[in-house]
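Friendly challenge for the regulars: who can give me the structure tokens for this chain first? No prize, just bragging rights.
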Amino acid sequence: MMSPNLKAFLDMIATSELGARLLLASDNGYNVLVGSTADHPRLFSSYADHPRQLIDLPRLGKKSTAAGRYQLLARYFDPYKQQLGLRDFSPASQDAIAVQQIRERKALVYAEAGRFDDAVARCAAIWASLPGAGYGQHENDLADLRRAYLKAGGQLA
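First reply, four minutes later:
Bragging rights claimed.
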């Protein structure tokens, strides 16, 4: 069972990566391909495997295979699938991978305890939309993300 703070932290990451409107325009973000917008969602239809679609992002001058609620790259899916004993790219599998990534950044204890700012800082290297990520993509404001976390039911320490 996932703690309310961890669930709210995952919701915040999805909001940061995809935006609240795109979450509503999809299966809560679980079926979203990189480059989607709320007005033009690009969705995949099967959770059997990571969609593994290389998508051109001319605005960024890059291509990416990011997909799902937490925008996981295809090259990371197979190692996590094996490590965690996953069978597919279902919402439960995507959540399990995101929690493992948070754990690997030694941020799980902070996320569960409501030490929001500390958890975000430790996870910035994973998710490009978090403040301080430094990937040259749009980074969201920490105060806005904190509001999303609180709206999702998270409690601050």
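The chain is about 45% helix and 5% strand. The longest strand covers residues 55-57. Your move, everyone else.
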